[in-house]
């Protein structure tokens, strides 16, 4: 039994030998002139948001009905370790605009507090098209992230018309530190996220 479980977990572990982009992503893939190379523009079919996503990442085509997830993507060579999702849910009671959520540091502090060894890496405010966004970049230790080791998580939140939109991007700490392109991709994804409603 233990050997079967060991085999299963090793097949899904984040692998150090994988490059920053999936091997299915060719050298000319991505939008022309995109910075960094290897990103593709994505507009939500329902018109809620847009962002860039890494080429080679798969789109989760069938989301659970009634779920708050409105967009989901993952790196097929790092399943579970590198993910990107966008959520849509009612804003907290009494919150009508993004500033009422507090500062970006407040959001990062709340995120870091959800698990032991949560560490705030960065927190800042962004603006797109006159709308404010709060960015939290947090690291969670291996005891929380399990087989992936330490994980880097980015969350961006904004409020629009009584709805909270959250973009969540994850990667392993190892891949974030080992590959400058993974850092560039994370920054590009975060900078590109825009709610369209």
Automatic annotation (TrEMBL):
One of its GO terms (biological process) is photosynthesis. Pfam families: PsbP. It comes from Volvox africanus. Gene3D superfamilies: Mog1/PsbP, alpha/beta/alpha sandwich. GO terms for cellular component: extrinsic component of membrane; photosystem II oxygen evolving complex. GO terms for molecular function: calcium ion binding. This is PsbP C-terminal domain-containing protein. Residues 38-195 form the PsbP C-terminal domain. It comes from the Eukaryota.
